[in-house]
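Hi,

Apologies if this is the wrong queue. I'm a grad student, and the batch job for Acetyl-CoA acetyltransferase from Citricoccus zhacaiensis produced an output file that my downstream script rejects. I'm not sure whether the problem is my script or the file. Here is the sequence I used:
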Amino acid sequence: MGRVAVIGYAATPVGRLQPQGPESGSLEHEVLADVVLRAVEMAQVDKSDIGGLSFAQPRPYTQQKYFATFMASYLQLPCDGFVAEVLGNGMTGGFAFEHAADNIRTGRAKVALALGVNYETAIPSGEHMMSSMRAVGDVDFQAPFGITPIAWYAMDMMRYLHDFGATREDVATVAVKNRHHATLNPLAQYRKPTTLEEVLDQPTIVHPLGLFEVPPRSDGAVCLVLADEEVARASGRPYVVVRGTGFHHEGAHQITATPNDMIALNAAQKAGGQAFDEAGLRPSDIDFAELYAPCTIVEVLVSEALGFAPRGAGARFAAEGRTSLGGDIPLSTSGGLTSRGHPAYVTPLYNLLETCEQLMHQAGERQVKDASVGLATAELGNYNAALVHILERVSA
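Support response: The file is valid. Your script probably expects a header line. Output copied below for reference.
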């Protein structure tokens, strides 16, 4: 098996794209088709070269069903590689990327697309929350009590503050840092700078997390063009290769029946270890990381689990500016889920796009200087499972 490369990408700005009620607007397949055309144009491959389509399964609110086969028809793309929709909750986009990569690794395709669209902002909050409550807990035990994803993260934060003596202010600096990064990202949903005082002054969502410390509801569409490295090398242009991949599911859903350390993020530790071993690298070799972190505390915890900060020091690293652009290890250079936005099923694809954009030295004002190796993550549940990719720039 040869290495898998990324040779093209495109996305819509994250925000509110879903038509509101009877108002006219672009349907999911129309928005995604435009993104595909732009990504393929960047890749400079012929339409006939594309042999596989791996979709992040759309949200249940999507009007067009059998979305993958419909899009193959809409794009007029016959394929010998697999055409499929992949679902894995918050990891959905990451699994779509892996599915496309496997189309290439197995020789079914020389070029494959990892793509998806997420529409949810026009759905009533009550309907959306009822779906979330059935997803994040046991429908017999936890869902009747109204548990939400943010509630799990809030419990993590309370545990972290208790165990390590960090302050809420330390953790809140993650939101300030990510908003600054987002001001430099044309794809970000929220680009107005904010201060620590403003973050702390926001309404509480679930104590101790406030409005700016949790993710918004978002729409978005994204496409990455993957290719066998031979194809990428023949282009004569720089490209990005997948150097290491790791995955672990700890066999638990939110809270395990087996006593464990709830804020150690065991799955992220193991998946990260696998990815580093496969790449032959250490955390200190990574130039930046784009983390799947729905809340400020999650970025702190996963930064520690992956070895970018010592245990208990992640919040302090953020407060000291060590995870900001120009710092020791810039994290969430896109603005992260709290500011770049969180179109859930395609969020991992946006994370991978940001990683590729940095490695292709196309990130503009938020460019990490001389970036050559980056890391991206996706999570399932309360980091009960983690998917880690290490990507590397290859110059022409």
